[in-house]
Amino acid sequence: MDSIKPLLTEHGRLFHKADQLELRLCRLLNGFGFNPKTRQVFRTVSRLGDGVFWYVLGAMLPLTMGMEGFAALGHITIMGMICVGLYRQLKRKLVRQRPFMSFSAIQAYTRPLDLYSFPSGHTMNAVNFAILFGYFFPPLAWLLTPFAVLIALSRVILGMHYPTDVMVGAVLGAALAWGSLLLWPTGMFASTLL
Q: What is the pTM of this model?
């Protein structure tokens, strides 16, 4: 068996079984990182997903939309903070080791921002932000959807996450974004700033 460290908690045992099932796909995707040019592209995408891309978009909303942009940015910022709080709590409670830590066959092509992999915070934020920015500023949707997909792929290719980490992160990010829009269809700050 290629496992480096056995996991002893109940969550750990469940994740260990899932890790074994996902290893083949994880290795296949991680294999794209062997090519230096491909690796650099996905490192760049992942770094942009750390926040830089989203911060630039956020700064542009008030510039292009005025007070509506400020209201949209407030909604997006609150939902981003909720995403970060949620995935940090889930990671601490569920404690799934990152693929490169569990399997010597998986290479880490970047440094992790934290210890655990489930769910993918990058993917959760990317999907949440893609939906919200696309909702409040629809012309961006053509750019945001592929960018969120690339962020999710980058996390597996770079050895930071299993495919289920990014799938669950995507579902949670989408649920938070759409849930917030169901509660506040015009944005949670629309009535106070407009």
A: 0.85
**Has residue 7 been placed in a domain?**
no
Is the peptide bond prior to 119 cis by the omega test (within 30 degrees of 0)?
Answer: yes
CA-nearest of 43, 52, 14 to 157 is 43
In a domain, 16, yes or no: no
Residue 55 lies in a domain: yes
How many domains, in total, are found in the chain? 1
Q: According to the 3-state scheme, what is the secondary structure of 64-131? A: HHCHHHHHHHHHHHHHHHHHHHHHHHHHHHHCCECHHHHECCCCCCCCCCCCECCCCHHHHHHHHHHH
Residue 5 forms part of a structural domain:
no
Check residue 11 and report its DSSP letter.
H
pLDDT tens figures, 17-55: 666 777 888 888 988 989 999 999 999 999 998 888 999
Domain residues for the domain of 87 are: 25-193
